[in-house]
Amino acid sequence: PRTAAVIPAAGRGVRLGPGAPKALRTLNGTPMLIHAVRALAASRAVSLVVVVAPPDGAAEVKSLLDVHALPERTDFLVVPGGESRQESVKLGLDALPPEYDIVLVHDAARPLVPVDTVDAVIDAVREGAVAVVPALPLADTVKEVEPAATPGGPEPVVATPERARLRAVQTPQGFDRATLVRAHETVTDNVTDDASMIEQLGETVVAVPGHEEAFKVTRPLDLVLAEAVLARRRL
Ligand code: CTP
Ligand code: MG
């Protein structure tokens, strides 16, 4: 089975603060998107990477892919993204040639995912799962609250799910392509990850061990951590 990766990179990065679109911001001098592309292309199983660029940034992303060293055996495509992450992923899926039957969806905002995590996700799909997510146990206890009417106001706690049964979910998430395409054609709710669309179809999603270095760069402090991880790797 041939495997392609779709990398949604079209977000603005509002929570990171003012600046370039998040995927184009640099970590130790290299754009976050290039780190993410390298992380996926590092897997020998991935033969195509589709980058979903900021809507007005496709040309810039193409030239970034041209100037940075990337594996010869991997093909690259760039398509412009949409208003929501979900839309961006759909636009990436629409660009996939027919011969790919396993698809990974990976956030550009998770630039440091280790190749072993990528391969573990692909292996689980190859072994028959229709949807696979890398996941980690939580350090914090999680409460469900009744959201405050005014921001910053007190929020009544509704429930405390048993922490040992909760997982924080990362990317790349891996899918049987046909099932993910069907999910995008039928699920219209707003979702925060791709696997939840598969759950809505009634299909089974399985979790495999994630990795702490697959964290998402969301807020300014995450940039500090990402650059420290890269320095430790001497990149
Ligand atoms: N994404 C996308 N298209 C969008 C919105 C998000 O491709 N319209 C991508 C982002 O580029 C990112 C991934 O989805 O790689 C995860 O989203 P998130 O971390 O929320 O990134 P942003 O939406 O850019 O950040 P923010 O929500 O702070 O604006
Ligand atoms: Mg976002």
Short description:
The protein is of the alpha/beta class.
The CATH topology is what?
Spore Coat Polysaccharide Biosynthesis Protein SpsA, Chain A
Tell me, rounded to a whole number, the average pLDDT.
Answer: 97
Number of helical segments with 4 or more residues = 7
Rg for CA atoms: 18 Å
Structural class: alpha/beta
| Oligomer category | single chain
Sketch the major β-sheet. Answer: 8 strands, mixed
Low-pLDDT regions: none
- Strand count: 12
The CATH homologous superfamily is named: Spore Coat Polysaccharide Biosynthesis Protein SpsA, Chain A
| Shape field | globular
Bound molecules: cytidine-5'-triphosphate, magnesium ion
User: What is the N-to-C succession of helices and strands?
Assistant: EEEHEHEHEHEEEEEHHEH
The domain count comes to 1
- CATH class (first level) name: Alpha Beta
**Percent of sequence in beta strands:** 15-25%
Protein described:
The strands form three sheets. Strands 1, 4, 5, 6, 7, 10, 11 and 12 form an eight-stranded mixed beta sheet that branches. Strands 2-3 form a two-stranded antiparallel sheet. It contains seven helices and twelve strands. The model has no long low-confidence stretch (mean pLDDT 97). It is α/β, with parallel strands linked by helices and 235 residues long. The chain has one domain (2-233): Spore Coat Polysaccharide Biosynthesis Protein SpsA, Chain A (Alpha-Beta Complex), CATH 3.90.550. It binds cytidine-5'-triphosphate (CTP) and magnesium ion. Cytidine-5'-triphosphate binds next to helix 3. It catalyses: 2-C-methyl-D-erythritol 4-phosphate + CTP + H(+) = 4-CDP-2-C-methyl-D-erythritol + diphosphate. The record marks 15, 22 as: Transition state stabilizer. This is 2-C-methyl-D-erythritol 4-phosphate cytidylyltransferase. Its EC number is 2.7.7.60.
